[in-house]
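Our working data are protein records whose layout never changes between entries. Instead of coordinates, the fold is spelled out as a row of discrete tokens. Here is such a record, shown just as it appears in the course material:
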Amino acid sequence: MGLNMGTNRYVRIKTIELPGNPLLKFDIGWVDDQSRAYYLADRSNARVTVIDADRLEYSHGLAEGSFAGAAETGATSGPNGVAVLADRQEVWAGDGDSTLKVIEIGSRQLAATIATGGQKRVDELAYDPENGVVLAANDQEPVPFATITAVESREIVARVEFPRATNGLHQPVWDPSTRLFYVPVTEVDGNKATGEIAAVDASGRVVAEYPVSECQPAGLTTGPEGELCIACSKAAIVAGFAPRSLIMDLKTGEVIARVDEVGGTDEVWYNPSLGHYYFAAAAMVGGPVLGVVDAKARRWIENIPTAPDAHSVAA
């Protein structure tokens, strides 16, 4: 999507064709300003697909054939979560066999495989550059857990279990102002109306748990003024709750705003140059959309129709 500055509305400006198998199964996307590239977890081709963000065209694949690919269910497919560690020139991605894959951007080759100790996928992940650690969520295990891995040694330094999580974990984020990871616990104790955001430090200690209601949180991103944007998921729509997205004050854990015009979202992204949140609302009532919200005003701008399962977004 591109922004038409004359009308202040987003319009589709290009469709990018990819080599290999048709893109039927994919997961998380990530844009990196330094390398001017968009990285996509391309399960259909068992690779991380790289798009040139300036030319808006396919560039190359990373570690093609090193991932599980599109398995029978998402629980064992891969790649899943993707994060670019720009200071190390590495891409880290979760795979369907409970491993983290480390790929060198320069050589485009697999540099390391890190076993996290589960049986199913490593899903989404977040990077703390100050402490040099990555938090990755294993959301499909009987007791969901997250691992914290030191990027220099590539050794797991902590495992954080979430025994009360009854619908997995989703997109974590690291916040530089609080120096904490935030992990969405989609459902707590089997109560569909209750989820929470867990704050986790670099040692793996859960320092706070902030409840959210009728949301089943999935995606997280940090925004302006020490705020956390929470994407309420498809599971909330299935449970019968109205579409919504939430904004939380990270200092207090209080939900300070609610946006009712967009919900049923998997991934969410913040673009600081425009001050907008973007919601990949694949399960929005009425059909899948890309939702756009003014982050400072905490106000919905528009929803742009997308396509079935369009659950990934990056800007």
Notes: The chain has a mean pLDDT of 96. The first strand starts at residue 2 and ends at 4. The longest helix spans residues 234-238. The CA atoms of residues 16 and 57 lie 6 Å apart.
